[in-house]
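Incident log, entry 3
Record: TauD/TfdA family dioxygenase (334 residues)
Problem: checksum mismatch between cached and fresh output.
Input:
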Amino acid sequence: MSSLSPVSQLDVELRPGSPPLLRAEDAGDAPGWAADHRDALRGVVAEHGSVVVRGLGLREPAEVAAVFQRLTTALMTEREAFASRRSYSEGVYSSSTWPSNQQMCMHHELSYTLEFPGLMLFACLSTPETGGATALADSPTVLDSLPTALVERFEREGWLLTRNYNDDIGMSFAEAFGTGDRGAVEDYCRANAIEFAWQPDGSLRTRQRRSAVVNHPVTGQRCWFNQIAFLNEWTIEPEVREYLVDVYGADALPFNTCYGNGDPISEDVVLLLNEVYAANTVREPWRPGDLMIVDNIRTAHSREPFEGPREVLVAMGDAVRLADCAPSVEVAAG
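Fresh output:
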């Protein structure tokens, strides 16, 4: 079915199980089209949380970067990444490096930072043989679907992210923080409410406590906004988890999440979170040239397993401060 949104004045297709879809014509000037339709597209995202634009015929990274720049107030440089990316140009990256045969679970990009993207932009240059969709879930709906007692605990305590940066697995601290200067990393951590400790082998361990529920800075909607399930040990493939625990120890996994008071999150809670996400997931298989715009606070995203080469470019824009989202947990930085 088609629905002509009074906000956007664009003919947007709304279909059960899929994100809103807008069909555009490839006029040979995708950046110009994006500039002309910027406000309307952002209106669709404000109304629905996301939109897939099909038909622009995006083909080259430089063209994608120009489109991204015209749709945001400013692109962000990624900090505190959990997986490596290729940088195409300033603020334009590849998808996170993640095993293609493993699910990248629902999450909100950089929800563990004090400043995160309000808008996520994706562009598909090539599709895999099978799978690989960037699926979406509405965070207010997810929040409403979770047990009240569990939500109340996370609202009281927040969630705790522990990370171990080393040169063997995952991100090194130099990659994650954009510098190998220990003093600069320490300054960043102090300014961003991150506890840190250098280990005898030269690796870095950090902990940061964040709110699990925030209010959308524009609409005021309560949103389940975090990476509790995605970065938890129980979401890691069992054989991979066993190997990591055996080699590095249970306290030295590349990343893990806990309740805000430090208590471990049980496997059944992580399973529940992922089941609720799955029950509220929508997806649209990628086609070459597709553009997708996502409200990062209202809408979680994932990446499904795939086979064959896949090239999806990503950008983060319209930075939002956690302090402007009525966090339930106080964070003291500085």
